[in-house]
Amino acid sequence: MQGNPVYKFLSALLCYPEAEMIEALPEFQTALNSLPELSGSRESLQALLDYFGSHSLRHLQEEYVSTFDRNRLHALYIFEHVYGEDRERGNAMVDLLEEYRRHGFELGDDELPDFLPALLEFFSHIPPEEAQKLLGDAIHVINHIGKNLRTAGSPYAAVLECAVSLSPVVPQPLIEPPVRDMDEAMETFGPDASGIEPLLKPSIQTVQFYPKGK
Predict the structure, then answer these.
(1) 133-165 pLDDT per residue, tens
(2) Pfam families from the entry (predicted)?
(3) Which DSSP letter does residue 66 get?
(4) Is the pTM of this model over 0.85?
C-alpha cells in the first residue's frame, strides 16, 4: 500500500538545504497547492518556501546548522527530547530501527532512526493507519520542538506545526529529561561488564516516543 506523500513533503523541507532542494522549489510549490492535508498550514508553509527562495544556499545552510545543530531546544532527534543522555535512548533507538526493518525501510549509514526527517520519510512508505499511530505517539515531542522554533521566530516551525495538525492526538507538555549523573548511576546500578558504564536493566518495551511518567 502506498503511503501518504504529505509526509515525504514535510520530511524534505526539514532536510539540510542542498542545491537540488532549491532547484525543486517549483515542485514543492505544486505539492503545497495540491495536497489537501496542507490546506490548513498553507500560509505558514508558503512563508517557508518564500524563505528558501529569497536567500542564498550558503545562508540557508548556515541558518540550518545554527537552528538545529547548535541549539538543543530545536534538535530534530526525537529521543533526545525524551531521554536526554539516559542510556534508555539507545534501547528506544533499537526498537525504532526494528520497526523500520519490519517494513523493509533501510536508513543510510549516517542516519539515526529518531531523526525527524527520516521518521517522516518512513511514514510516507507505510500504510497510512500505521503512520497515523506512530505520528500520534511522537506528536508530543514534535509539538514541543515546533513551539521552541516558533518562539525563536524560525520559519521551520511551520513544518512541525503542520505535522501536529495531521494527528487527532492532543499534544501533551514534555518534561525536560534529566542529564544522568554518572557517579550516582554507578552507585545505584553498579558497573556493567566493562566496568565503565552503569549497568541498567534492558528495555523490554517497544518504541516509546512519550513514555509514561515522562
Answers:
(1) 999 999 999 999 999 999 999 999 999 999 999
(2) Nitrate_red_del
(3) I
(4) no
